[in-house]
Amino acid sequence: MRGGCVAANMLNCSLGLCALGLPHGTALAALPHKKYALRSALGSAHPLKLSRATLDEAEAKRTKRLHKRKVDEKRLARLDQMATSRAYAAKDNRDINGLTRGNCNACGVCPGFVQPEFPNTHGHHDLIMYCLACGCGCHEHSEEVRHNKYNGSMR
Q1: Reduced to 3 states, what is the DSSP secondary structure of residue 134?
Q2: Rounded distance between C-alpha atoms, residue 134 and residue 54, angstroms
Q3: CB contact at 8 A, 35 and 27
Q4: Quick one: how far is CA 147 from the chain centroid?
Q5: Residues 6+ apart with CB under 8 A from 92
Q6: pLDDT at 61 (0 to 100)
Q7: What residue spans define the domains of the chain?
Q8: φ, ψ of residue 65 in degrees (nearest 5)
Q9: Residue 20 in 3-state DSSP?
Q10: Number of other residues whose CB lies within 10 A of the CB of residue 4
């Protein structure tokens, strides 16, 4: 019912609802002296009252959840591909551009960027820019900037 209301772009009525779902066993009373407010009878199932705001909020959460699931699937596929190609960790946490990278901002579980190295580099050029620990891209890890003695930032 939520999906149908969102797809039909239903607007709220004067009661503040755009849809009213009545499960089996629902008995309602419309109270005319209270602007036709709905009250379920004692012992019956409660109606599902949907407003446009709750529908939009639920749809935004669903879209965010689906996007996160797709990103996680791609990340895990990259990690699996690195494992099958026998990648090993480099000596430092520098990315392909030579920048020192730290914690991951995308997944939040990676302690620090690990540059993958492959015994046979043929065919693995696209995996070099991803972290061996979490599978996220090097651009998603925070860049660690060190300062020199002249108060300028060195990369």
Answers
A1: coil
A2: 35
A3: no
A4: 34
A5: 100, 115
A6: 94
A7: 81-155
A8: -65, -40
A9: strand
A10: 9
